[in-house]
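chain below, 119 aa
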Amino acid sequence: MTAPDPSMEAITAAVVRGRGGDVAGARSDLEALWSETGVGGDPFHRCTLAHYLADLNLADNLRRSGSFPAAADHLDRAEERLSALPDDAYGDMIRSALTELRRAVAELRTERLSTAPDS
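prediction:
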């Protein structure tokens, strides 16, 4: 049996908080953990934190740079997998963000959207 990992428990708690709807609180928790872990911290913890702190939404990044066809392609692929999302606050958040993003791509808009992280 493995010993409890307090860092991973804290990361998991922050992720669960975000998926429960408190995205800003979760981000704040993860940023605090990132600072606490530091550049010399455990590489696994650093990678896990980097993953959850990253903005990995390629469709939105492409849209904001004016690459609307590429953004639409990424949206198409994301929408094909919507059924895999849970029917909870996290799933609702992702579905709402995709709807807003689809509208912005159709309207050729490049401004930061209300559903973007840290907006």
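The helical segments are 6-19, 23-37, 43-53, 58-64, 68-79, 89-106. The chain has six helices and no strands.
thats it, cya
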